[in-house]
Amino acid sequence: MSPGAADSLDSMTAETTHTTAASAPAASAPAASAPAASAPAASAGVRHVPAYAAPAASAPLERTTVPRRAVGEHDVLIDIKYAGICHSDIHQARDGWGEGIFPMVPGHEIAGVVAEVGPGVTKFAVGDRVGVGCMVDSCRTCEACEAGLEQYCERGNIQTYNALDKNGEPTYGGYATQIVVDEAFTLRIPDGLSLDVAAPLLCAGITTYSPLAHWNAGPGKKVAVVGLGGLGHMAVKIAHAMGAEVTVLSQSLRKKDDGLRLGADHYYATSDEATFEQLAGAFDLIVSTVSAPLPFDKYLGLLRTDGALVNVGAPEEPVSLNVFSLMLRRKTLAGSAIGGIRETQEMLDFCAAHGLGADIELIRADQINEAYERVLRSDVRYRFVIDTATI
């Protein structure tokens, strides 16, 4: 991943908020430049809510309205307060992975407050602090779903946006003022987490927590995190809180001070070939958070016997490696995608218990397009979060 101008923050007028304590108060909202939103329709039927959408592939996002279904028997209507910007939002809004459904409202890092519940809802009440992550439904009956692995639903889960729901209607994400979600796919945000710093946990938090938990990061384990961006900074925080010895592997030492502040014990530049010699056979687990393809043979050389290199970043191009890099010392090259609903709640509770929130920069909705460009330049530390009061 090429280094960006992370210290060049004068390209936007938003006040920068770097929040590291999860219990810190929510950042104050920047003034909205968009016109005031009209009140939503009555809950008896479909409502149209203000949102920001990409009208076509690679088109700038613009203010619009999108439909939300009527609140059903087991549905929760959420007043969205904050929505994080994930790198995958950019991939999809620009149709980098193909088959995009437009107009598209991105956003799967959603934090808000329950405004209404259906008559059959038992888990939530009006006023509860809640979140929505990367999926809003699944078949719920396959082996994966019954095991709490809805992200690997054998019939395909329904993504929060850029998907079709069970009625064949497009799903629209969190760059909006409200969303309707089944209570089974709604998460409770603990009181110890401010909503603004909790929003990115619904993707960046669970995406890194799940492989760290699955591969048993903890005391006595040496964990390397490749890349220190939106995903990487959460991987460092979580691995450190789990008790692992944490090393950051980044192209340069530009973010070394940040890495150590976030909880890393060591920080190395991968642009220095000596790094790969010095760290050969050093790690039990490597979590790669970058979306650029890696020279996998070199990184596999950093693993101990039975070590694992797990990809949570999603390069657009195919990757290649020499199979002997796996066979020698019985190493594993794996991938991991978000987490199930039960594990996501576990992650939120873990983060609240350890005072972990994302480091964020709060922006207005009319700054989304510029924020996208800054993400591509790696010019954010470490997650943009939209104050949806400005939509």
TrEMBL record:
Keywords: Metal-binding, Oxidoreductase, Zinc. This is alcohol dehydrogenase (NADP(+)). Belongs to the zinc-containing alcohol dehydrogenase family. SUPFAM superfamilies: GroES-like (SSF50129), NAD(P)-binding Rossmann-fold domains (SSF51735). InterPro entries: ADH-like_C, ADH-like_N, ADH_Zn_CS, CAD-like, ER, GroES-like_sf, NAD(P)-bd_dom_sf. One of its GO terms (molecular function) is alcohol dehydrogenase (NADP+) activity. Residues 1-27 are annotated as: Disordered. Its cofactor is Zn(2+). It catalyses: a primary alcohol + NADP(+) = an aldehyde + NADPH + H(+). Residues 10-20 have a biased composition (Polar residues). Its EC number is 1.1.1.2. Residues 56-386 form the Enoyl reductase (ER) domain. It is an enzyme of class 1 (oxidoreductase).
